[in-house]
Amino acid sequence: MSDFDPLHDNQSGLVLQEAKPKLKKPPFYKVILLNDDFTPMDFVVEILMEFFGMPHEKATHVMLQVHMQGVGVCGTYSKDVAETKVYLVNEYSRAHQHPLMCTMEEA
Ligand code: TYC
Questions:
Q1: 8 A C-beta contact, residue 43 and residue 100
Q2: Ligand 1 neighbourhood includes 70 CB (under 6 angstroms)
Q3: 74 lines ligand 1 (CB under 6 A)
Q4: Which atom of ligand 1 is nearest to the CA of 34?
Q5: CA 42, CA 53: separation in Å to the nearest integer?
Q6: Where is the signal peptide (predicted)?
Q7: For 63, which of 14, 22, 28, 46 is 20 to 30 Å away at the CA?
Q8: pTM of model > 0.90
Q9: Residue 72 CA to ligand 1 centre (angstroms)
C-alpha cells in the first residue's frame, strides 16, 4: 500500500469508499397510438408512414394491431423527440377533423 492511499487512511484507521458515478442513461419513451371508432384506417396508415417512417406494409400491420388490441407502439425515442412526434401527430389529426389520439410512456 502506498503512503497516501485515500481508501485506506492509515493514520485515522478510517476506510473510505469511493463515490459511485451517479450518471444514469436518459430514459426512452414509447410513442403510442390509441384506437377509436372514427378515424379512417387509411389515415392511420398515412400517419405511421409519414411521421414514423414505416413502409406501407408495416404501417398497415401496426394500424390493424391498434384497431384490434386498442393500443400500439409507433416507435421508441428520446423524451424531446417523443414529445414532438406526439404533438405533431395530434395537431395533424385535429387539422383533419379526426379524433386519433397519440401519447407517450416511459419505455
Ligand atoms: N378503429 C378505426 C376504424 O375502424 C381504425 C383505427 C385504427 C383508428 C387505429 C385509430 O389508432 C387507430 N376506422
A1: yes
A2: no
A3: no
A4: 11
A5: 15
A6: none
A7: 28
A8: no
A9: 11
State whether residue 30 is helix, strand or coil. Answer: strand
How big is the chain, counted in residues? 107
The answer to whether 27 touches 78, Cβ cutoff 8 Å, is: no
Q: What is the DSSP string of 44-92?
A: HHHHHHHHH---HHHHHHHHHHHHHHSEEEEEEE-HHHHHHHHHHHHHH
| Nearest one of 96, 100, 85, 98 to 52, comparing CA atoms | 85
Average pLDDT across each block of 10 residues of the chain; the chain has 107 residues. List them in order: 49 73 92 98 98 98 98 98 98 98 98
CA quadruple 91, 94, 100, 102: dihedral, nearest 10: 20
3-state secondary structure of 94: helix
- In the chain the domains, ranked by start, together with CATH numbers, are 28-106 (3.30.1390.10)
Cα–Cα–Cα angle for 33, 70, 67, nearest 5°? Answer: 85
Residue identifier of the C-alpha nearest atom 12 of ligand 1: 35
